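Here we describe the complex-level prediction in full. Unlike the single-chain runs in Section 2.1, the two entities below were treated as one system.
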Amino acid sequence: MYLSNPVTFYMIHFKNVSKFYPPDIVGLDAVNLRIEHGEFVSIVGQSGTGKSTLAKLLFAEERPSKGVVEIGGWDITKIRASDVPLLRRQIGVVFQDFKLLPKKTVYENIAFALQVAGIPSVRVREVVPRVLSIVGLDDKAHRFPQQLSGGEQQRVAIGRALVHQPKILVADEPTGNLDTLNSRDILELLKKINEFGTTVVLVTHDREIVNRLKRRVITLEGGKIVSDVEEGRYRL
Amino acid sequence: MMLTSTYRIIKFAFQNFWRNIWLSIITVSMLVLTLLTVNILLVVNRVTDQTIAFVENRIEVSVYFNEKTEQVKINDALTYFRTLPEVKDVQEISADEAFAIFKTRHANDADILNSLEELGKNPFGPTLIIKAHQAKDFDAIITALDHPRFRDDIRQRNFSDYQSIVSKIRKTTSEIRTGGMILSGIFFLIALLIIFNTVRVAIFIHREEIGIMRLVGASSNFIRAPFLVETIILSVFSILIVIAIMYPALALIEPKFSQYFGPGTTGLVSYFEQNGLLIFGTQFLALLIVTMGSTALAMRKHLKV
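The structure predicted for the assembly as a whole is:
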């Protein structure tokens, strides 16, 4: 199954989605959300408001308790375990803690995302240097993650997320572990990726980042969407 | 695509092995120690078997005939004992030979030699030395000595000591075998637990990596396969190290046994040479099954989507 072209479908469509955790914790509560192809959307809110839960539903790390989640027209509400890798190869994901493979070099970390999909080595050798160039790490290709700064590690993670040319990039607190300068760099990179046509979902509680972006902002509170504003600002 | 994936899986397995070299060394060490324990047990079993065979082979009944017993009767007894199924070998020592052997054996004992000279004649009669196949066969042989055809010609039979030796050997043999079986069972269980836990720890250390692989879209098989191939590499290294330790160690300890039992009696090196493929092949297969099974089991938890 592959994500369809965005002509007839929303890129991301949540229909009355709720997520509950035992015994009685509400992650998301009846969320309705539509994100179109090529949008750059920030999901903001304080800790524990359901931002990360929403992100995890996008790449099937979690399944909704109620409602329907559609990604590019593909209903992933009850996605089979064997189909999850297929979905994840079409969505780029970036995390606060980078989640790089510590025993692989920068080059190998990025190449790994292609190799798991069975992409031929010739193609891997073509694509990875190009991605390294986009994220500005061509000269550090053979270093291991622990030999890089936080900002550089996050750029590797973004490179890995980009390597499939995904239709969606989900960034869950990508600047959480970075200083202001590195955070701005990462933000510029995300904007550049968005300009290439990738839908970007940025989960963050970084006020400065959101305010600089001047794009659509969705605010969550208690698992519910309390505001959804085009060209919004961080108001909490 | 299949070929590319296979190549990548093998490459990742070697990378895992090499880049986590300390973890690999610890795992291999544990596997080697376990295999060495199994092999030491094998050696102990082999030495026990050979010791029992050696002692059984040394036990014989000497039947001393009267000096004046005719050769015809000796031949009759010789033929009779050779027909008994319990008898492995019967050796005849003539009176003259017995006399010569006795004199040689006591060549340094002047008192005994003087006494013999004073006696002025050969005091020995012919002797039959009877060997049995197994210790338990001696009962039948000792009973056979009471045959009326030559009962009255026998001056002395020195079986009384052997009877107790035979029963002691039987008891010890059976105890050693039972103990060995129990010990083997316990060691096997310990080996299983050590291997299982070693692999579990190794996988636990990789749990975060496994999670990351899942997040970037690796299928369960693609994640699992390099770890399984790595267990093959670990098992190959372990068995090679065990072989490299075992043969020199056996060559070193074999002469010590030979000092007690005579050259080549335990035949440890030749036993391991002749059965090496079977012994180490079986151990390798068993190791592979246990390590791969443990890996698959340990990974199951981390591969749940």
